[in-house]
Structure formats: structure tokens, C-alpha cells
Amino acid sequence: MTTGTSSPTGPAAPGPSATPVPGPRQLPLIGNLPAFSRDPLGFFAKLRGHGDVVSWRLGPQRALFLSRPEHIGELLTGVETQYRHPELGWAFKLVLGEGVVTSEGAAWRRKRALVQPVVRPRQVRAYADTMTDCASALAGTWQPGQHIDVRREMLGLTQRIAVRTLFGTDTAGREDTIGPAMDTAQAAIGAEFRGLTLFLPPWIPTPGRQRLKKAVAVIDSEVNRVTEERHRSGVDRDDLLSRLLAARDEQGDRLTDKEIRDEAVTLYIGGHETTGTTLTWAWYLLSRNPEARRRLADELTAVLGGRTPGFDDFKELRWTEQIIRETLRLYPPVWLMTVIAKDESTLGGRPVAAGTVLWASQWSAQRDERWFPEPDAFRPERWDEGAPPAPDHAWFPFGGGARACLGARFATVEAVLVLATLAQRFHLDLPAHEIPPKTGLTLQPGAPVRATLRSA
Questions:
Q1: Which of 86, 241, 408, 426 has its CA 20 to 30 A from that of 337?
Q2: How far apart are the first and last CA of the chain?
Q3: Where are the beta strands (DSSP E) in 99-235?
Q4: Distance between CA 106 and CA 70 in Å, rounded?
């Protein structure tokens, strides 16, 4: 399902057209901002219906919306060369600082080189037991017949995993301090992503910004406290913070305490909110698809036989991973990405005016019937070995190119091992009604996800 491939008997076939087509009607000054803010996912579906490269406006910004994987691949791989990231909102910058996600150019290359070894596969192996220990502890508090809020349980679980893998035992008993502060921070970023405060000057003291400042003060205090204790003790522990403190760049320089803080918060948000959200959606989809749930139970019995999974089981839990992959296709936590064209940028060989904002949506592309037949159906078998593959960059929940999510492996292993640990012991029965997604920092359920526990 690719285009632009060469033939042994003739010249290369032309790639898909990147000629922009006009999108929905725009309003003076504000363009398509009201429609986008009201229903971003519906608006993206409408844009996709206009064509593969659609022109629109978000306020005064010229924008293009991309739907073809070939063009999305250019966007993903062209950052740092043809494209740059847009100026992020006040809340985003206040929370994440100058971490690897927000940095550009030489600063980004240095920080990525320092942070990447922290989340390499061999390091993820060291955290697998923490993931399953926390999941087993949660399962120990559940009882058949109990009613639970699935999202609250999953976010609480991934929060504990994030805190312990980041800070080890230094934050024992203090999750209730840093957790609510992180929740406030993530909610503020989510509000900006929906365009509610993105265009307000930083000096306007809205109530939400006042709450965010207090939350960030708590986050800074907790991270700085643990960092200072590590400096005093000089103890090297088996957690992400120790690895960040030990990291050296090519000149032998360490990360500063401010850089440590920024990377720790980035890793926390990436390891907590996104994975907890993915697990919530996975339980929702499994409850609505009993055959997929039965096949999951069969795999867990065959691979684990009732024991707690470990890192070495990950590669054998293929159906479990396919459930996570299909969940990420239908409900990608990161649901959009944007870049800005630099001078002399191109798309599909055509010039793109400098300053144009290029948008792509995981939600939209991953529900395109051209790449995924029956796109709204939950079908983990799409990812079976031997199944027809989707084109490159049609599935990109972790982004792609040089700026792909560093924590992708960590998040995938965590989601698979947690799901396997809990699904061995419990079924989660949800009501039959559909739960719509809600856009924010991540793609969250738009209604409570409540379940009744039943022994597996």
C-alpha cells in the first residue's frame, strides 16, 4: 500500500499530489478557530473529507492539514531540517521548561543524547518488576463484584509506577503531593491545546493560571528536594533520576539541576498520563469485544500459567501487545502534531510558504479506511504476523523521525505487562453505552468509565 515506488522497467511513479485544496469556509480574522475549538476531532474528519492536503486557518495562522502517510512522513522526518516546532503555550512551557520535548537545534541534540540512554530497552528491563509489582498490589485491593472507576484506577496505577521508576523510594508516601499537582498541570496544558487560553498574553492572571503556578511550585519543590538529597548522599540508585544525574554529554558535562527537573517532569507526564489513558481505553474496548478478551485469556494461560509476567515474557505476549497497538490506533493519547515551515520548505516536491503551520492528526489518519479497513472497528488481528501491513506513517502514536517519543518502548512494555497482570485475575465489565473521546493534553474518555469486577 505504498506509492512512489520504482519499476524495474520504467521510471519511478509520481508521488501523491501535495497541491492544497480549500477547506471549510473561514470567518474573518478568526478563520476556522470556532469549529476547531468546538470539536477538534470532528473538524479533522471534515478536513480529511476535503482532500489529502487541505488549507485552513487557525486564527491568523495559515495552516495545512495532511492526511496521506507519505506527507505525514515528510512532516515527521523533516523536523530540524525543513520544519520547526511552533511556539508552545505558556502553560506547556511553564510545566515542561526546556526539556527534550521543547528544545530545538543544538540544545535538543545534546539533551536527546543525554536522555535517550535512560530509556533504552536494557534500562526498561530494570523497571519491569516495578510495573508488575504495582499492578499486583492494585489487583490485591480489588474484589469480585466491586464497582470501580477505570480511569481513576489506571491513572493512579501508572502514577505510582512513574513516581517509583523516576524517584525510587525517595517519594514514598508523597505520591499524594506530587500527583494532584501534576494533574493540575496537565489539565492546564490540555486547556491550551483546545485553544482556550493559547492566544492570551502570559501576563493575564486567569484563575487557571494561578492554580497552575501553585501546582508547578509543588512540582519544583518535590523534584528539587529529591535531587538535593541525592547530591548530599552521593548514592547511585536504580531509578531514572540516578541515570539522569549520572548522564554526561560529549564534553563530559552533566545536566544542570534545572535540566534534571525539566527532564524528570517530561518523563513523568509521558509515563503517567499517556499509559494510564491507553489502559483505560483498552479495558473499554475489551469489554465490548468478548472474542478479543477470550483470546487474551487464552494467551495469558498459555504463556504465564498463572504467574506474574516479567520482562522476558513481553515478546511472547503477542496478542496482548496487539491489543495495545490497536487501542493506540483507535484512541491515540497524543492525537495531533504541528510544525511550522522554514524558508524553502517543501511538501511532495512543492514549495510551502515559510510560516505555514502543518498539521497531522493521529486520530484522523489512523481511522482512514484507505489504510485501515473498517477503521472504527476494534480488530487487534490487523497486527497479526502476515496480515497486510498499513503504509509507513499511517500509524504514528509515538510520532516518528528523529523526534519520535523516547519513552515509546517503556510505555509499550508497561501497558502490556500491566494489562497481562490484571487480566489474569479480573474481567472488567463495562456498560454497553458508547463513551466518546474528549480532547485535551491527551485523548481522554468524555464520560466516566465505570466497571464491575469479575474473577477471570
A1: 241
A2: 40
A3: 147-149
A4: 27
